[in-house]
Write a structure and sequence with these properties.
There is one protein chain. The protein has 384 residues and is an alpha/beta fold. The protein folds into 3 domains: 2-52; 71-137, no CATH class; 152-383, Nucleotidyltransferase, domain 5 (2-Layer Sandwich). Helix content is 51%, strand content 12%. The protein has helices at 2-18, 21-35, 39-52, 71-83, 89-107, 112-120, 123-134, 210-223, 242-249, 269-283, 291-312, 338-344, 350-360, 365-383; strands at 156-157, 169-176, 187-194, 200-206, 230-233, 256-259, 318-324, 327-332. A 6-stranded mixed β-sheet has the order 1-6-5-2-3-4, with helices on both faces. It has a two-stranded antiparallel sheet with strand order 7-8. α1 (2-18) runs antiparallel to α2, α1 (2-18) crosses α3 (39-52) and α4 packs across α5. It is elongated and about 110 Å long.
Amino acid sequence: MGKIVKLFAEKIAQRYKKAKNSKKSQILDEFCATFEYNRKYAIRKLGKLIKRHRPAKPKQKPGPKSKYNIPEVLKPLKDIWLAANLPCSKRLKQIIPLWLPGYQQKFGRLSLDVIKKLLRISKNTIDRILKPIRIQYTGKGRSTTKPGLLLKHQILIKTNQWDESKPGFLEADTVAHCGNSLAGDFAYTLDAVDIATGWTEQRAVYGKGETGVLKQIKDIEASLPFPLLGFDSDNGIEFINWHLARYFQNRKPSVDFTRSRPYQKNDNAHIEQKNWTHVRQWLGYRRFENPQIVLLLNDLYTKEWRLFHNLFLPSVKLQEKKRIRSRIVKKHDSPKTPYQRVLDSPVIPKETKQYLTDILKPLNPFDLRETMDHKIKIIHSLAK
């Protein structure tokens, strides 16, 4: 019986909601007579029944609607963010003006209003509107390293030797593409970064043979847009050997060859970071034991890879680090690409700067990324 009464009351509430003001008084009289309710109580009762069946309104945040969280702005922002390999908002803000011409060339013209919004958007707004998208692209991995012992007494340990304002001082390391096992032979990536400009070079070697590593270091030196002044590495056998020591020390002028303290990764913090952002994030942790992959990696590293990372991807440099009570406060400079830092350097000749500018002009970062993805796909197919 209770269900019938409830349904009857809801039917009257629906009639009351749709009725005109002149009819509502009659429906209310009918409701009071049927259930013997007080008139004020009956009004409140009908109001609750009407509210229960009212569709919920979507919750809206207070304040004006966002000008940036709209499809016209979100699509190019997401496309650029993905193509640039998921940079932080601070770096993405600097990437947008560099990549917009290439984006319009690749995907079509954007309206003037959208271009203005993309150029004006703040890093906090980027974080806010990309937050639900970032969750879909998070991933973690695992890293392996293998130290070595040779010639340690011949190569100095230094941790603060570099003049960070002058290009030419490199940190180097190897990244093992060994999968889950260090057994057998497999490919390594030789990773090097210039401290002053952030200019990076990568080369692939098969195993940690001294001759193969030295050959690729020579190739890296020939590719740098500035002379090599210093070389710092960890204590791996691929670096601490007579071949490399003679190459750096028996030349005029000699190159400062130093090493980090054993088991102190922070001594090589710059290159440890690049191992993740410039190698692991792109190639992952699969095992590359096919020697043919080394040739394909070097074809990638010496062409599209170095142009994409050095000309189009900005990075930040730590300017100051201090402790305030229990907190470590770090201050970084504005994001710049290695190419931009080369242009800003007063010690690099104008001819070199013009050469790099001429290389940059015809390039489109989206075309480079497309070619890189294609080559990486072939590499992974061989890894199977």
